[in-house]
Design brief:
Elements: E1 2-6, H1 11-18, E2 24-29, E3 37-38, E4 55-58, H2 73-91, E5 96-100, E6 111-113, H3 124-139, E7 146-150, E8 154-156, H4 171-182, E9 184-186, E10 194-199, H5 200-212, E11 220-221, E12 227-230, H6 231-246, E13 251-253, E14 267-269, H7 282-295, H8 297-302
Parallel strand pairs: 1-2, 1-4, 2-3, 4-5, 5-7, 6-14, 7-11, 8-10, 9-13
Antiparallel strand pairs: 10-12
Helix pairs in contact: 1-5, 2-3, 4-6, 4-7, 6-7
């Protein structure tokens, strides 16, 4: 199959591109040194005609940083880009569309959440993800088409280009970065809220499974990792990694632990569908990241 792929230089898209085996992935992007075809989702006039293809995998949809300034105007741009991308891919032959969304589409991250939980997006970030899902369903609504939406919770994984990564606010990256740069991870809460941590590699393998399936896959799949733990536990895990890799020490500082009546609600991220086997653990990810930090120490310590 010939697969159009967005976000090939990002966290998830790079793992998808690295996993290519039986398929021909065609990278779409704004930088032709990292893409095969020019495609600027913020300005569709700066897009080359898409080549003939069988499927679209969209890994460059929405990030928290798109709404860092609180501008709802960004929502219109994101959705226009998603619709233009989907339409052009379909016109060039795509019958399958896979979109990397987020667990935040479900709303509050509490209780047991599987694919039967109704969507309730409560932030511009989550709303943008859900609206993009719906746009894909609208464009690929034919009987001979299928849309599969993947909703991971907290994603970790290898960074192909440390210096151009812009999602440092994500826990799997912000905590080890704080530990390395400052010798201290500072939590804004007690950190008792729980998250499911899944690797970008597992997401990539799930995508390959969908593309290889001889039958239609579920419309929504929660992609799960093997590790569900509290934010505080992940901070401690990051500090432990710093010590393992470099012998450095990092404290984990947090406000007083909430009283029993204010503890976060239990959280269990679940799926009704079989999952791929995780092949890289959070500890392995953190150790690899710490090594990258040490190899780029001068640049890293000088960044804002």
């Amino acid at each position: 199959m010939r697969i159009l792929l967005t976000g090939a230089s990002g966290l998830i898209g790079s793992a998808v591109y690295a996993s290519r085996k039986t398929h021909d992935f065609i990278r779409l992007g704004r930088d032709l040194s990292k893409a095969d075809y020019l495609c600027d989702l913020s300005n569709l006039e700066n897009c080359q005609n898409f080549p003939a293809n069988d499927a679209l995998v969209h890994c460059a949809g929405v990030v928290d940083e798109d709404f860092a300034d609180g501008a709802v105007s960004n929502l219109t741009k994101i959705l226009a880009g998603a619709e233009g991308l989907a339409q052009r891919a379909k016109e060039a032959g795509a019958k399958i569309a896979i979109y990397i969304s987020s667990s935040h589409v479900y709303g509050k991250q509490e209780g047991t959440i599987d694919e039967s939980r109704p969507p309730n997006p409560l932030s511009y970030y989550a709303i943008a993800h859900f609206c993009t899902e719906q746009i894909f369903r609208k464009v690929f609504s034919g009987e001979d088409c299928q849309v599969v939406v993947l909703r991971p919770n907290a994603v970790y994984g290898a960074l192909p280009d440390l210096r151009h990564f812009r999602r440092w606010s994500l826990i799997p990256f912000s905590f080890p970065l704080e530990a390395y740069r400052h010798g201290q991870i500072t939590l804004r809460s007690s950190g008792e809220q729980r998250r499911n941590f899944v690797s970008s590699r597992s997401i990539a393998e799930t995508i390959c499974r969908i593309l290889d399936a001889p039958f239609k896959m579920p419309a929504i799949i929660n992609v799960l990792g093997n590790t569900t733990e509290s934010v505080y536990q992940y901070a401690e895990r990051s500090a432990d990694s710093l010590f393992r890799v470099s012998g450095g020490h990092s404290a984990v500082v947090r406000p007083s632990v909430d009283s029993p009546t204010k503890k976060p609600s239990p959280f269990c991220y679940a799926s009704q569908f079989s999952q791929v086997q995780e092949t890289i653990s959070p500890d392995e990810h953190l150790d690899q990241l710490m090594l990258q930090f040490s190899q780029n120490s001068d640049w890293l310590m000088g960044r804002p």
